[in-house]
Amino acid sequence: MRRSIPAVALVAALALAGCSSADAPASSSSPAPTASADAGVTVSNCGFDATFETPPERIVTIKSTTTEALIALGLGDRIVGTAFQDGPLPDGLTVDEPLPVIDERMPGAESVLELEPDLIFSGWESAFAADAVGTRDELAELGVGTYVWPTACMSADAPTEVTFDSIAAEVEQLADIFDADASGVVADQQEMLDGIVADDRGLSALWWSSGTETPYVGAGQGAPELILETAGLTNIASDLEGGWAPYGWESVLAADPDVLVIVDSDWNTAEHKIEYLEADPTLSQLTAVQQHRYVIVPFAASEAGVRTAEAAQSVALQVSEIEL
């Protein structure tokens, strides 16, 4: 890794590399990680072949999913900076020292590169853009590895659905990169899943993530769908493609879901969403609003990762306490 190069020189090189990166050939993809004594571990990640000759030691994480995955694997001490965290760490994930925060939102290349990371691990593929931390080809030329949480891939290798098996496989792939042991994390999540009692009352639900005039909801192919199914709920927006999608209030009113699963975040709290529903002359007529059938999920647990099983467990428990 080129840790002797000053950050300003890295940023300058990144800018120059950007002038020619558009002409670079597309990377080939492979379905599974490969490893050898000489080459380390190579994975196809969002269509980009990423090779890790040795386990990364200095990691910048972008989004909570990546930070939490590393901490769960016992690798939190390798995190040299975080950005765009969706919320505080849950009680079950702890670190000895507070994690250094680079930016509350998407960081720029200079602030990341001055930390001299050997890996930038992002929960959004869009972080690897010229106007963000830099493209993956450009960063590779500077000796900086890149990795996207696989469920977040969009340009290539995008998942058609999210399952607990696929999440476990992603945790195991991450562990391969770091030569770590994922068995404890996978076993703990399976134990949570085994203890979930799915509701059997045939209840329907809306997963409301954000937006007011036009709600942005959990669709039929992502973590929200998986969590709702696991808890025994039927997603009224399951016919929409992708993990999340815009959905008209007219459709919500027509479906009149039994339960409203509301995502809680610092920038758009569940309390604010509930106040909006109950103050609106039309939306306040929804059965779930009139009966206060609300289930709350922290934003940081709403995207696929090491907290998905915990989120499903929490939703199932909250639903079990709802009386019809």
UniProtKB/TrEMBL annotation:
Domain of life: Bacteria
Keywords for the protein's UniProt record, in alphabetical order: Signal
A Pfam match: Peripla_BP_2
InterPro entries, sorted: ABC_Transporter_SBP (IPR050902), ABC_transptr_periplasmic_BD (IPR002491)
Signal peptide start-end: 1-22
Every Fe/B12 periplasmic-binding domain range: 58-324
Claim: Kinase is one of the keywords in the record: no
Family, as annotated: Belongs to the bacterial solute-binding protein 8 family.
Protein name from the UniProt record: Iron complex transport system substrate-binding protein
Organism: Agrococcus jejuensis
